[in-house]
Design a protein that fits this description.
Residues 1-13 have a biased composition (Polar residues). By secondary structure, the chain is an alpha+beta fold. Helix 3 (169-191) packs across helix 4 (213-226).
């Protein structure tokens, strides 16, 4: 790497000049010629292993929040009794047939943007509002998906309520997390024999593994705003990846706590002898959970479960988290005898969750009644629209491949009345004119969806899931998988189970935990108790910074040439920290040293670039984008570096050594002043890009 340079172009820094005078090409880092000037030193080519110090756990209790697209919940465990996981209390409201303690991810704010309620209470309160009053209230449902789909997520990103009003997304998420914080802490205190201080609680929040760094940071910032922890205690909050959490819990499963689809051959959704429907085991499991609800405490194995005893070192398996909004896939390998996990392929997935079935239902309604009517109905009768989606959700849960009879979905009276006013004809007439043979009208005011209709609604989403799993299994790193674990709320669907069995049952054993909707939540608690259980992860992207290297004629393009003080430099070279799909173990670090470009500089800002591929050389290459920045605060005593000699140049510059970790669920950075040995305040930001 080059020695310290002070130039006015590209990565080179000149003191006293404005940042706006940059002549950097599009896509290259701004030269930062004021307080943010930097000059990189001593790059190291790859992560270096460094043992993490093992310290005693300073927390008394771990509280995990599974923040899902369609349903959410919390659970906790005391560190002195880690084998007992306590589930959240079941509060008012609820739907028939719901098998777990979780609540709908619904939030209701008053017209003046104050918190009113969450979960079943929010849904019921919104339903009971006067139709003239409802449009002034803000009801949010399935809002987590907006974070997944936002390509330019920032602290100012807004969410749109059902009524059309918008609020900052960070405030909506903070309201929900604050609700869980208050309920969880009350329950923890009720079960604790001692008084717990705020810093004795470790919090864990789950996110999809396919979420990028901005979305993970967004959840952390929402937790800070909600008061779970403070920014001064970042280690008190862990971000858990949902399929990882499920994998951690599946390690503890006993044989009676799972269903092995591969040992029950199916034909048309039935056992081959036709004796019982495909989903009978889940009905039995739900009944067992209902009977055991009064305890709400689950005991887990102190070691590993019986299924794990069948596995050998090197055995591979896939966890498919089929949730409400996304399907998240991770591939793990077992490391014995320590029982740790190693990720074999970068997390993958997409927006193929159960919400896709809801969207297909809405598209079907648009086809029958017209998109203009549906949009108008949603805007003018938002509470009635929510009622209709709830009615469909209840019937969706009962859909199974072996069912021959139709499913009835109640249409709200306001839907029937509004349509007649809007179109001047009845709902029955609209159905007849649509020539839709798979949807009929019932004189009792219901839509009758035939089995073919339900198959049409489910099939596109299920096909996406199966195809993604099949494509993943073709990867060289994934071949030879012995087990496929289906987890998440959508995994409880007999429609998905049948499709997975038919497509993948001959390739591997398909395992479904009986408490499938709570698998991630329990695993998140276990992750909070031992964050080191996943020892190796794969990088989802290539990360690096733009630097200068010596210009080599014939290798570097002429447009990258910079001549300074008679020396030739190549600009915009990507100094790669890690590469996409690279294995990085816990404790492995990437070190770089930077020095202030002038005396008295108070801040160093280093722009971070990323790419989906590894075949990049320059930060201006196609597909390379600026994704964040590292900030080093030099205002601490002794950290503002450099003395000036007689000719005005810097004689003795401070070296700030940064250490970055890419092996955890979040990218972390620390820094130290080499001259003094003092820590330098360092932060990494992916939301202000």
């Amino acid at each position: 790497m080059a020695a310290l340079l002070h130039s006015s172009t590209n990565n080179l820094q000149v003191p006293g000049e404005s940042r706006s005078l940059s002549t950097s090409p599009s896509g290259s880092p701004s030269p930062s010629r004021n307080e943010c000037s930097i000059a990189p030193l001593t790059p190291s080519p790859s992560p270096r292993a460094e043992a993490r110090p093992r310290v005693a756990c300073p927390f008394s209790v771990v509280v995990a929040i599974d923040f899902g697209t369609t349903s959410s919940g919390y659970a906790f465990s005391f560190t002195e009794d880690p084998e007992a996981i306590h589930m959240m209390r079941r509060w008012e409201g609820g739907d028939p047939g719901m098998a777990n303690q979780k609540s709908p991810t619904c939030l209701l704010l008053t017209p003046d943007l104050r918190f009113h309620s969450f979960g079943f209470a929010a849904r019921d309160s919104y339903h009971d509002l006067d139709p003239e009053e409802a449009p002034h209230w803000l009801y949010f449902d399935k809002f987590k998906m907006k974070i997944h789909s936002a390509s330019d997520l920032t602290m100012e990103t807004e969410l749109e309520a059902v009524s059309g009003r918008k609020v900052r997304a960070i405030e909506v998420f903070a309201h929900a997390l604050r609700f869980f914080r208050e309920h969880a802490l009350k329950e923890v205190k009720d079960q604790s024999s001692s008084v717990l201080e705020g810093d004795q609680v470790r919090w864990v929040i789950t996110v999809p593994a396919v979420w990028r760094q901005p979305a993970k940071q967004f959840m952390r910032e929402a937790a800070y705003l909600a008061g779970l922890v403070t920014p001064d205690s970042p280690d008190q909050l862990l971000i858990a990846l949902e399929p990882e959490a499920a994998s951690i819990y599946c390690r503890k499963l006993r044989l009676h706590q799972m269903i092995d689809l591969s040992q029950r051959p199916m034909a048309n959704g039935m056992d081959v002898d036709g004796s019982r429907p495909f989903d009978s085991s889940f009905r039995q499991a739900r009944e067992q959970l209902r009977r055991a609800r009064h305890s709400r405490t689950f005991l887990v194995e102190s070691g590993t479960g019986e299924l794990w005893s069948e596995m050998k070192t090197g055995d591979r398996y896939i966890v498919a988290d089929c949730g409400g909004g996304t399907v998240d896939l991770t591939v793990h390998q077992i490391e014995q005898p320590q029982g740790t996990l190693k990720e074999l392929y970068k997390a993958s997935g997409g927006p193929y969750g159960a919400v896709g079935v809801d969207m297909a239902f809405e598209a079907m309604l648009c086809q029958i009644f017209g998109s203009d009517f549906i949009e108008s109905f949603k805007a003018k009768r938002p509470a009635a629209w929510v009622d209709l989606t709830i009615a469909f959700e209840a019937r969706k849960r009962t859909a199974s491949p072996g069912r021959a009879s139709s499913l009835n979905i109640s249409l709200p009276f306001s839907f029937i009345d509004f349509y007649k006013r809007y179109r001047g004809q009845s709902v029955e007439t609209a159905l007849r004119k649509s020539n839709t043979n798979i949807v009929k009208w019932s004189s009792q005011g219901m839509l009758r969806l035939t089995a073919d209709a339900m198959n049409e609604l489910f099939q596109p989403t299920i096909n996406n899931i199966i195809k993604h799993i099949e494509d993943l299994m073709q990867k060289p790193e994934v071949q030879g998988v012995r087990f496929l674990f289906l987890v998440g709320g959508f995994a409880e669907s007999p429609m998905l189970q049948r499709a997975a069995h038919n497509a993948l049952g001959r390739t591997c054993r398909i395992i479904i935990p009986q408490d499938v909707g709570l698998t991630i939540l329990k695993g998140a608690v276990l992750f909070g108790l031992d964050p080191t259980v996943v020892r190796v992860r794969r990088c989802p992207l290539t990360y690096g910074v733009g630097v200068l290297n010596r210009f080599v004629e014939g290798r570097h393009p002429p447009e990258k040439l910079l001549v300074k003080d008679g020396r030739e430099w190549c600009t915009d070279i990507l100094d790669r920290f890690v590469s996409v799909d690279q294995s990085v173990a816990l404790g492995e670090v990437v070190r770089r040293s930077y020095t202030p470009a002038r005396v008295g500089q108070r801040k160093i800002i280093i722009n971070i670039y990323c790419s989906d591929t590894d075949d990049v050389v320059y930060i201006t290459d196609p597909g390379v984008r600026k994704c964040g920045a590292i900030t080093l605060d030099l205002t601490e005593p002794g950290a503002v570096g450099g003395s000036v000699n007689g000719n005005g140049s810097v004689a003795d510059r401070r070296e700030i050594r940064t250490t970055m970790q890419f092996g955890d669920t979040e990218i972390k950075v620390t820094a130290v002043d080499v001259a003094t040995g003092r820590s330098v305040r360092a932060s990494i930001d992916f939301l202000s890009n």
